[in-house]
Model the fold of this input.
Amino acid sequence: MLISVSQTPTASAVPAAPSTTPSAAAPSRPATAPLLTPLGLLTVLLGAALPMIDFFIVNVALPTIDHDLHAGPAMLEMVVAGYGVAYATLLVLGGRLGDMAGRRRLFLWGLAAFGLTSLACGLAPDAWTLVAARVAQGAAAALLLPQVLATIQAATTGKRRARAVSLYGGTAGVSSAVGQVLGGLLVSVDLAGSGWRAVFLVNVPIAAAAWLLAARTVPESRSPHPSRVDGAGTALLATALITLLLPLTEGRAAGWPLWSWLLLAVFPFAAAAFVAVERRAERTGRTPLVPPSLFRIPSVRSGLTMLVPFSLGFGGFMFVVAVALQSGLHYGPLAAGLSLLPLCVAFFLASLAGPRLVQRFGRRVV
Done:
């Protein structure tokens, strides 16, 4: 399934992804910055779990959405892909904005936006409205998620930081798998006749509670030397992703119309322009959206060599298996979700053990 390409951002939302953003690269906590309390840590981890769970929670609900909204295969793929493309395009920009305007402030804005867009998804009267709301939800997730690891880096030190990062890894790991289990449960229970809409509406009270907690417990922090927003790089990256992913996701179902081929023809030019703009920005002393020099670091190259194939495969697997279990094996939503419970447990345990194993045995663990 070509949809797996668009799901790369979420699979890469496990610990490796946010650390590539400038906001997460703070080497130490400023002496005057307030510490993150245990309740504050719980709050930011809850904020991190919301967008990660929501990427996958919708998968089990897709057959029900199709039946209710007469969406069709292409539209169902857009429900998933729209979220992923918006998230991927704006993730680094969200980190930059947190550096500039304050991470707590952006965290609160992101939570509010995520709750409102979740409400819009849950109330969507038709498939196109749902796709538009999912795109907006992905943008809100990109605003929210980078602030979590950046706040942990800025407001913790020593063993507390190591423990917080380990818990972040566990949250990221289990969220990616538990989303489909939770989605199956919500669709099966059919709260107040809400059906598939519950997988989105459940976010609203959780986001509201997290917002109230964050306003009281999460300290403000920002970069002492924030980088400027790379507007040209962001626009070109968005263009490259859209011209590649939109025709690959919708072209086959639409019969490969002329627009799909035109967009694919634009893609290599947009990608080349993005690379050229980023190289020029770095040569002139500015901070590009994706600094090309990062790819000269051996650990970055080896990490991407493993992370990209994993992200492609994991995203595609989670999408396909959710549909196959229900449409092919005729499982109910709850049975389809529960069948992934062993994966959820193993993912959670490995995520918690990973940092400790790496500290003891080094990169051989990876």
